[in-house]
């Protein structure tokens, strides 16, 4: 049996206990193997015994069984099996491992990961979000300009056309020119109106959907990392 097979079988046998306690127990024996080194893997497996025995002793410990088993400074002792599954004294002193320590270590790692994610993620989200807002702002500025030009040309064209009609009573050629200029202005204004409508119908909806999807993805990723 290899170390991986031993740990996998032990994890399978401990499925019925709390996940936190199971992770602590598996972490304990993972560190046990790591301290012993690859060369002593089989020796450690022989010292520990079968995964079934270890799983039974862990359950007894979690259930508060006394008299038959106890966890001492030298390792776990169970009278039913009459064996001691202890770490070598040198490895135990170097590792200083215990269940609570493993839990605290995991908590510290989680805190560091969260802090690192926030520190690195917020500026990136800000840059991407600012870029998206800038693109939307440019787009709104553009369509506002198109709308303003179309309204200005239409209003100006109507004004020039009306002035040209009045001018015809005094200076006919000038009046005709003014009317022609007014009609040209109105025609260009109508073209800008068509352009404005095309932008609103064709370009505006996909752009808004893209920006909304981008923001959702950013917040969704931020939530998963946190």
Question: Would you kindly provide a written description of the structure presented here, covering whatever features stand out?
Answer:
Keywords: Membrane, Transmembrane, Transmembrane helix. This is DUF1700 domain-containing protein. Pfam families: HAAS. It comes from Anaerostipes caccae. The chain crosses the membrane at residues 107-129, 135-163, 175-201. The protein has 226 residues and is mainly alpha-helical. The protein folds into two domains: 3-97, no CATH class; 107-225. Helix content is 80%, strand content 5%. The protein is built from seven helices and three strands. The chain has helices at 3-13, 19-36, 41-48, 51-62, 89-95, 99-168, 172-225; strands at residues 69-72, 75-78, 83-85. The chain has a three-stranded antiparallel beta sheet with strand order 1-2-3, covered by helices on one side. Strand 1 and strand 2 form a beta hairpin. Helix 1 (3-13) packs across helix 4 and helix 2 packs across helix 6 (99-168). The protein is rod-shaped, with a radius of gyration of 39 Å. The two termini are 39 Å apart.
